Amino acid sequence: MATLMDRVITSKAAVLEGSRAIAEAVRLCRPQVISAYPITPQTHVVEALAQMVADGALKAEFVNVESEHSAASVVLGASATGARVYTASSSQGIALMSEVLFNIAGLRLPVVLTCANRALSSPLNIWNDQQDSLSVRDAGWVQLYVEDNQEAVDTHLQAYAIAEDRRVLLPTMVCADGFLLTHTYEPVIVPTQEEVDAFLPPYRPQHYLTPDKPLTMGAFADPEYYMESRYLLDRALERSQAVIEDAAQRFNRAFGRHYGGLLDTLHMEGARTAVVAMGSVVATLRDVVSGLRDDGHAVGLVKVRSFRPFPKDALRSALRDVDRVLVLERALSPGGVGILAAEVRAVLQGQPRQPAVSAFVAGLGGRDIPVETLQALIARAQDEAVEQGFADLKAELVEEGDEDES
Amino acid sequence: MKLIPGLVALPGTSRANKTGSWRIERPLFLHQKCNGCRLCDWCCPEGIVSGQGKLFDCDFDYCKGCGICAEVCPVDDIVMQVEER
Question: Is A216 on the interface with B (CB under 8 A)?
């Protein structure tokens, strides 16, 4: 029996929950094997996909497993046989997967994974920040951060095109802020199957496992070979910069929607101060920065869409003329100087104009980042360079020297 | 030789990689009391004991000298000796 929901989602534009919208996008990419751990910290994405497989709306092997480590292992093996694969996780699940995430990248398998960005324990939290995906920064995956649900849908289509490109052959993680996007209803245009098929041809693997033609994948590499294989991984991520740009351009021509390739900019012409951020806070920042512009402040916005590969040249070019940079961090490197900010500072090193870079940790564990906070941070970054500050910290909860008091 | 991304290689590397040099002790098949039970063949983790009837031996290109064949032989017809090179 067709439900109201079914009728809504088969039309071209619909109001969908983020997770459901992502599931629709994944279905349209025709994955052949999906594996997931079906319990917390999972999202509705794989729940919806399991329903589609059960209903016959998606012809795929759906493998429920006992842990995220196993989910990643199943898609690793399936991808090695040449299948298009998909998995999703977040938070502790990404942490548990991390060993296999490194293997998938080293094996150069074009797995696509949705990370519904959520905080890591302890303390137990479940709400949004980007600690999970940023903690597996060095696994060797392409990492794309999206700012709204339409971009989440469209980026999954691009993710397969990037991952499976012969110049790349890398797993790709689409990072969408947990709850803020995954559990939020927004109007979303769901492409048609014909449109997606035209954009994304079937995966044609170069090397794959089959009993007819045995081969070894991910061979043992002693000190004579290990460094070179890691070098090849690094080169592939560098090469993927052009492919990410290509995919975004090609997507724009096919669907008429564009979110930037490696990064996106707003009001950067003549800007003296730039805000650099990733994920859903960028959508809020668009309003904040536009408002400041209307009031005559020379403020611009740079959205880092691709965190890996890090868009070194594109970022240098975008920040060429600014005096001050505010970097927003939705994750924490304890004892460090910011995760995104450290890389922003590194690429600006040695440039003719060296802007003062302030970094602020904001919105950890689901804390809202309201407009007023963003306005205050921008004002502060225009006055001083803060190595690493914490936005909206509740001083009364963390006053030092009173640990012994009850 | 150029590396193929993902370190894709032809199969048969365990044949190409001769592991005999790992050996500290080598099995000596005495061929005196063998009863033809084949335990040495079945238990060899490298799969390199071969023979028929009551005449077995191993391939020293690959034998790592683990001593399992000598351990499982019910009639002590295999003994381990210090390898001298």
Answer: yes
For residue A16, give its domain range.
11-255
A242 plus A334 within the same structural domain? no
Same domain for A316 and A179, yes or no, is no
Report if residue A1 sits inside a domain. no
Q: Which residues contact A366 (CB under 8 A, 6 or more apart)?
A: A119, A125, A126, A127, A128, A129, A179
DSSP state of A45: H
The CATH number of domain B24-82, selected from 3.30.70.20, 3.90.1100.10, 3.40.50.150, 3.40.50.1000: 3.30.70.20
User: What sign does the CA torsion over B3, B8, B11, B17 have?
Assistant: positive
The whole-angstrom distance between A75's CA and the closest CA on chain B is 16
- Read off the CATH number of the domain in which A107 is found: 3.40.50.970
| Residue partners of A85: CB distance under 8 A and separation at least 6 | A31, A32, A33, A34, A35, A75, A78, A79, A111, A112
Q: Which of A215, A224, A228 to mutate to test the interface with B (most CBs of B within 10 A)?
A: A215
User: Which helix (H) or strand (E) element contains residue A33?
Assistant: strand A33-36
Within 8 A of A216 by CB-CB distance, chain B residues are 7-11, 13
Q: Looking at the structure, do residues A273 and A245 belong to the same domain, yes or no? A: no
Sequential DSSP letters for B72-83: H-TT--EEEEE-
Q: Are A115 and A90 in contact (CB under 8 A)?
A: yes
Shortest distance, CA B66 to any CA of chain A (angstroms): 22
In this structure, are A234 and A342 located in the same domain? Answer: no
Query: What pLDDT, in 10s, does the model give residues B23-82?
Result: 999 999 999 999 999 999 999 999 999 999 999 999 999 999 999 999 999 999 999 999
**A135 and A152 belong to one structural domain:** yes
In a domain, A134, yes or no: yes
Q: What is the pTM of this model?
A: 0.88
ipTM score assigned to the predicted complex: 0.78
pLDDT digit string, tens, across residues A80-124 = 999 999 999 999 999 999 999 999 999 999 999 999 999 999 999
Q: Looking at the structure, do residues A201 and A280 belong to the same domain, yes or no?
A: no
- Which positions ≥6 away from A150 have C-beta within 8 Å? A21, A186, A187, A188, A189, A257
**Residue B9 is nearest to which of A107, A109, A216, comparing CB atoms?**
A216
Phi and psi at A4, nearest 5°, equal -60, -40
